[in-house]
């Protein structure tokens, strides 16, 4: 039975990853109003008339529904057959956060929300993905969190600081998308030909995101260096920090590609999707490191 639960957990994590990407696609293509102000129907129909925007929005809703049911099933099976408390927490967290982001999405359709509120939608989806990823990993060798020695309190705190800060950077990035501010800075690394542009409107929003992302790169470089220097024997900690460093570097360059693709609709869409994929992988890595600190503390 555990093998079947593991397979379902893996499918749930893949499904949550797909929801993240499809949500980014909805935002990038401005398809959020593709079904009008109807929910759960689409323009008053169970099977809507075919348009690109309605297809994107309605398929996103359908995938959310299927994955939510799958997560509920996995959660029930975990409580029936799995004794690990952490797996139960991950399962419950995945379901709760998936339902929360689905409700927020429904409310955004029926009662249009501000960009600041809409940006939280991606953040909830990201958290739900992190929980589902941790659930899937708990059935593998990566679910053995024991290390050769405890992690220092300051280092544990630093990991959580980086994780929380990453979430804030993600929120700013989602705010950039929902305010359609990507064109506020043309060119990279300069913004409109300046190192420090006028911090107003779309330019100010995009430049704030760039500064936040640059600082994120710095702190993750420090994190990876400290992990290798002070905790080289912690194989999973070191590997996780190296993967996080690789993903944040890719994230910075994918952000540059987004800027360079402005004016080419297809390239802009593709680079934006890649950007979302990488941030999901980065946040997943850092979430795993956060869990390692919790078990190190227990040890």
From TrEMBL:
GO terms for cellular component: membrane. The keyword Disulfide bond applies. It is found in: Membrane. Pathway: Porphyrin-containing compound metabolism. One of its GO terms (biological process) is heme A biosynthetic process. It is a multi-pass membrane protein. Its main location: membrane. Keywords: Cell membrane, Disulfide bond, Heme biosynthesis, Iron, Membrane, Metal-binding, Oxidoreductase, Transmembrane, Transmembrane helix. InterPro entries: COX15/CtaA_fam, COX15/CtaA_HemeA_synthase. One of its GO terms (molecular function) is oxidoreductase activity. It comes from the Bacteria. The chain crosses the membrane at residues 7-26, 62-82, 89-111, 117-137, 158-176, 207-226, 238-260, 266-295. The keyword Metal-binding applies. This is Heme A synthase. It comes from Paenibacillus athensensis. The lineage of its organism: Bacteria, Bacillati, Bacillota, Bacilli, Bacillales.
């Amino acid at each position: 039975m555990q093998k079947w639960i593991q397979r379902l957990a893996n499918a749930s994590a893949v499904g949550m990853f797909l929801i993240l990407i499809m949500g980014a696609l909805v935002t990038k293509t401005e398809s959020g109003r593709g079904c009008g102000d109807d929910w759960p129907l689409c323009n008053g129909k169970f099977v809507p008339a075919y348009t690109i925007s309605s297809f994107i929005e309605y398929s996103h809703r359908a995938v959310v529904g299927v994955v939510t049911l799958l997560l509920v099933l996995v959660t029930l099976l975990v409580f029936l057959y799995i004794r690990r408390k952490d797996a139960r927490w991950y399962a419950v967290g995945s379901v709760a956060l998936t339902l929360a982001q689905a409700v927020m999405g429904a409310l955004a359709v029926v009662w249009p929300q501000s960009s600041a509120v809409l940006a939280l939608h991606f953040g909830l989806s990201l958290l739900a993905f992190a929980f589902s990823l941790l659930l899937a990993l708990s059935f593998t060798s990566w679910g053995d969190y024991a290390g050769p020695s405890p992690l220092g309190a300051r280092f544990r705190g630093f990991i959580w600081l980086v994780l929380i800060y990453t979430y804030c950077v993600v929120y700013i990035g989602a705010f950039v998308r929902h305010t359609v501010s990507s064109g506020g800075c043309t060119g990279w690394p300069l913004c409109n030909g300046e190192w420090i542009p006028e911090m107003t409107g779309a330019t100010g929003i995009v430049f704030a995101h760039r500064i936040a992302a640059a600082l994120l790169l710095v702190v993750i470089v420090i994190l990876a260096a400290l992990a290798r220097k002070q905790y080289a024997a912690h194989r999973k900690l070191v590997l996780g920090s190296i993967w996080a460093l690789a993903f944040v570097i890719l994230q910075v360059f994918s952000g540059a590609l987004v800027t360079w693709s402005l004016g080419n609709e297809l390239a802009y869409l593709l680079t934006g999707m890649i950007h979302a994929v990488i941030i999901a992988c980065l946040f997943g890595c850092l979430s795993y490191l956060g869990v390692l600190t919790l078990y190190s503390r227990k040890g």
